[in-house]
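Q: what sequence does this backbone want?
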């Protein structure tokens, strides 16, 4: 009993800004595949200190080839960094697939990220954030997912019966870290493509999910990071996306480092690579976020 008392006392003294887990679908909605999924899609909320209204927020999509998630390295750690810089963060646990194709393909993941964005904006007053300053971030395959919400835009429908569908999904900004972008060229990441689209996808779907082809003048500002020696997801993914952004006169910044490989995350042990998170925050501030 004494041990339980001290555990409860310790828990009562945890900081009030500890994250909340927000499931993005009602329990009555069938979004899980029996025998494959162990948890329904959710996002963990990491609020920045303070309760001032109008904060910037970012929805983070960790990578993992659409088959698993680097949730801590590419989700929790970036969220805490953003918190230190006054930005709220939401880390998304979206639906996945496996080599046996027992899980989820497109559009399930896209539905997860767009619904998560709408939930964040619908509760902006509660979270003390500005819905017009809510963006998206993604790493690797999570970068592809972030690029889909960045380029496959859904307007809000004022007449929709579901209040969430009255909210637009376009992020205010997009941060793509060594992202998978294309699905149909020599530099595509075949593993992510197979998990997202299946082993023999229709060519029209392959083209539609190659998000460099979906950039328009309505695409929000984008911050890109890649390494030149990335053998898993070649830097041509970021370059192709940046080229499309410039063609459409969309504000964009891109950093390509001469080393780092793939999956370096926040790169805390590398004095050069570890600069990109600070550069990202500076970029957001220059844009007014």
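A:
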């Amino acid at each position: 009993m004494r041990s339980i008392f001290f555990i409860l006392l310790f828990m009562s003294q945890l900081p009030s800004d500890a994250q909340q887990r927000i499931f993005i679908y009602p329990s009555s909605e069938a979004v899980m595949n029996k025998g494959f999924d162990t948890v329904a899609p959710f996002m963990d909320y990491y609020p920045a200190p303070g309760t001032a209204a109008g904060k910037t927020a970012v929805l983070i999509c960790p990578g993992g080839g659409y088959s698993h998630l680097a949730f801590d390295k590419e989700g929790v750690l970036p969220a805490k960094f953003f918190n230190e810089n006054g930005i709220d963060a939401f880390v998304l646990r979206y639906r996945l697939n496996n080599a046996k194709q027992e899980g989820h393909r497109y559009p399930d993941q896209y539905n997860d990220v767009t619904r998560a964005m709408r939930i964040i904006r619908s509760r902006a007053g509660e979270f003390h954030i500005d819905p017009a300053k809510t963006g998206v971030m993604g790493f690797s395959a999570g970068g592809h997912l972030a690029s889909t919400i960045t380029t496959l835009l859904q307007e809000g429908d004022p007449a929709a019966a579901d209040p969430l569908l009255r909210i637009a999904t376009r992020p205010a900004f997009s941060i793509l870290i060594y992202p998978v972008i294309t699905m149909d060229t020599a530099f595509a990441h075949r593993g992510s493509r197979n998990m997202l689209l299946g082993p023999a996808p229709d060519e029209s779907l392959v083209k539609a999910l190659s998000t460099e082809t979906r950039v328009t003048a309505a695409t929000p500002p984008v911050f890109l990071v890649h390494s030149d020696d990335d053998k898993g997801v070649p830097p041509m993914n970021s370059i192709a996306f940046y080229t499309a952004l410039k063609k459409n006169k969309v504000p964009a910044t891109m950093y390509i480092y001469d080393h780092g490989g793939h999956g370096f995350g926040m790169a805390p042990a590398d004095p050069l690579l570890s600069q990109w998170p600070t550069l990202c925050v500076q970029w957001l501030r220059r844009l007014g976020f």
